[in-house]
Amino acid sequence: MFEMPRPERPVGEPRDVRIKRLAMRSMRRGIKEMDLILSAYASDRLGGMSAETLTLYDDLLDENDHDLYQWVTGQFAPKPEFAVMIEDIQNHISKS
pLDDT digit string (tens) for 26-75? Predict the structure, then answer.
């Protein structure tokens, strides 16, 4: 299976700029359902994430929207590195 290379990340990006970039990527997805799910999640969670968790979220945003939707809705198990974050997104959805 062909995998797209991960995009280059800005070096030395200030935290506030990084959060804004991730928030924008969260709301400009390929499918509307993921726009809604991830933009609400990003709005509530990005500011409290550690630098490492922001990197993981950035990596998550590189994943295919259809895969993300299936993980978030429980249709398929997520990649192991994203399991905790997907669970947090699911919990966020259930509280909304």
Answer: 998 889 999 999 999 999 999 999 999 999 999 999 999 999 999 999 99
The answer to whether 41 and 19 have CB atoms below 8 angstroms apart is no
pTM: 0.89
Q: What's domain 16-95's architecture?
A: Orthogonal Bundle (1.10)
H or E, element range at 12: none
- Beta-carbon contacts of residue 49 (< 8 Å; ≥ 6 apart): 57
DSSP type of residue 13: -
Question: HEC profile for 43-80?
Answer: HHHHHHCCHHHHHHHHHHHCCCHHHHHHHHCCCCCCCH
Domain chopping of the chain, boundaries: 16-95
